[in-house]
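Changelog note: in this version the structure field was regenerated for every chain. One regenerated record is shown below for reference.
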Amino acid sequence: MDWRFVLSLIFALVVAIFAIQNANTVDIKFLHMHLAISQALVILVSAIIGAVTVLLPSIIRSFILKKKIKETGKALAVLKEENDQLNEALAKEKSQMPSPSDT
């Protein structure tokens, strides 16, 4: 199992325990909103938003790298084909050249 996955599970467990132990109602003021909600909910939502904020650039980077790998694979295939054609042409040319013993 990946150590980052295990670490994230441990962190999620710590956050969940912290949120459960702090389940009092709190007043939240943000811009023109005023809410009275559970502190546990605020903690969990904040943790989720933080996780998504960290995960999103990672996902985007992964897609970009996969696209580059695919493009590189296509370029490699084209270069291999070109190499094969050049090797065939070289082999034909070598076979058509007179050998030094013939002169």
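Spot check on this record: Residues 3-67 form one domain. The CA atoms of residues 61 and 67 lie 10 Å apart.
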